[in-house]
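sry for the spam today, last one i promise. struct tokens for design, 78 residues
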């Protein structure tokens, strides 16, 4: 792995990264790497692999999902 140093990071970007890292319980470094991966589209492969895994491991739903949701909503009092 290589080391990357960023200079002249705007204060608002640094504050947002710090807050996001704290909210997710990870380091700023980790969140910055994740943001770079997303920004460059490098996370797309992992997402497609995850979706494929979920589709393989979960049984397909045979019911009409929209109908089930409508039925559930019709029973609520909002």
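last one done:
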């Amino acid at each position: 792995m290589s080391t990357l140093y960023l200079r002249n990071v705007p204060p608002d970007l640094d504050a947002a990264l710090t807050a996001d890292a704290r909210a997710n319980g990870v380091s700023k470094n980790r969140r910055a790497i994740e943001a770079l991966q997303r920004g460059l589209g490098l996370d797309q492969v992992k997402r497609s692999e995850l979706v494929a895994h979920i589709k393989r491991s979960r049984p397909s739903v045979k019911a009409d999902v929209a109908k089930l949701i409508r039925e559930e909503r019709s029973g609520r009092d909002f």
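Helices lie at 11-24, 28-39, 44-57, 65-74. ok im logging off now
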